[in-house]
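Z., the sequence and structure:
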Amino acid sequence: MTVQPALDGTIPTPKPPAARRRAEDFETWYAEVEPVYVAIAATPRVFTIFEIADEHRLPEPPDSAHHWGRLATLLKDAGYIRTAGWACSSRPTVHHSGVRTWKGTPAARRAA
């Protein structure tokens, strides 16, 4: 890859690629991402699943179309998060479609 020098002759710092790594299996992926969401659930923040994944550069699951939703279901069933409403997704591949927003529960704050 060729890097274009800036007008002052300096070489700009390369940007990391936008794509994130993909996990090999669901269990390994879940073990890595679950603690991040539990920590966020302990705060008063309202969030979408993708916002947290993007901010923390979390890996993609083996099956992106299904595993992100499964993660939300598992976190909800464990009592860490509850639905807060709806928003337009910031995920580039879904064209601003509606997604759930989530909020941590009092149990999540106590667990922290």
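The beta strands are 46-47, 81-88, 98-104. The chain is about 40% helix and 15% strand.

Let me know what you think.
H.
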